Amino acid sequence: MSDSVPPTQPDPQASSSGVPAPSATSEAASWTDTEACERLRATYETIRAELAHVIVGQEDVIDQLLIALFARGHVILEGVPGLAKTLMISSLARCLSLDFHRIQFTPDLMPSDITGTEVIQEDRRTGQRSFRFLPGPVFANVLLADEVNRTPPKTQAALLEAMQEQQVTVGGKRHALAPPFFVLATQNPIEQEGTYPLPEAQQDRFMFKVLVGYPSYDEEYRIAERTTGSDVPTISAVLDRDAILRLQAVIRRVPAAPSVVHYALRLVRATRPAHAQENGDPTAERVALIDSMVTFGAGPRAVQFLLLGAKALAVMRGRNHVAVEDVKAVARPVLRHRIITNYAADAEGLGPDQIITQLLDVLPERDDSEGQHARIQEVLGS
Description:
Layout: H1 33-51, H2 59-70, E1 75-78, H3 85-95, E2 100-104, H4 112-115, E3 116-122, E4 129-135, E5 142-146, H5 153-156, H6 158-165, E6 167-170, E7 173-176, E8 182-187, H7 200-203, E9 208-211, H8 217-227, H9 241-252, H10 258-270, H11 288-293, E10 294-296, H12 300-316, H13 324-329, H14 331-335, E11 340-341, H15 343-348, H16 352-362, H17 368-381
Parallel strand pairs: 1-8, 1-9, 2-5, 5-8
Antiparallel strand pairs: 3-4, 6-7, 10-11
Helix pairs in contact: 1-9, 10-12
């Protein structure tokens, strides 16, 4: 089952304003929330058109990267070598006028190679010596952690503070990272010798795990034709830092109805087997497949990322509110690295994606108890 986000065609109930993508983003601070949503929708189309000059296909992957970016999330990209992951990320950074740094993770990489280090500097006039901080490659807007599973956990952990707190601590001093800050870590699924798989606690920091697949026959033909010729495609900047920050703030204010929040919550709680629920948790959706095939399910952070991803996707689809189908669309990239299957699932050939698909099929969009609770509150309020 593909994890692709469905094409973001305009919603029939959405307004078609035809607002062009902003060329001078100094106006971003004066946008109303409605104007910002319209700009994001128009800008999304422009970004896809610009990236199409360089990247052939991979529209679903690009959509998921943009959703995570505007939702202030980080992404794990998993795919075999040669699928243009690095080119896609660097091109996206150029399209958004963001600083881009790439780190090739190796077994001998040290934490200071990522965060930076302090060096002794001598004042030639006074002879006094002092420590001076040299920033590492983590000081960028878009950071590509290439083959992140090839370095030991100590070095992998150097990214945690930066991802969560938007800062790094070196020599007891905190150094803030300039927003926006977006980490994309790549993994190679076919070569595991000499690798250090990311611990589940570190994977949970990433909003999405995106699977990058092979191109179709026609796409691969266009890739071969384009990359063996003399033409050098160019990309124009569509947004800048201030506009991105404004759009990220607007995404947080997109309303989600209580029924949508309840659905996201029930979906996440349904991934947890009975033995992992406190006191059996009678409020959790019981799915026999989960109890027999899953060791641990998704945690509370999954609910947050489901809703944030759904909000960004709703705006990109042209709506100013979140629907249940938006939550369903981002469920696989949000949940696949948070569900830990057991040996029984491996024996049946069931992975997290197949389990998520079955959950989406059997879980009702609305629980009757939600309507009952709302009616009780209405009666009590009156």
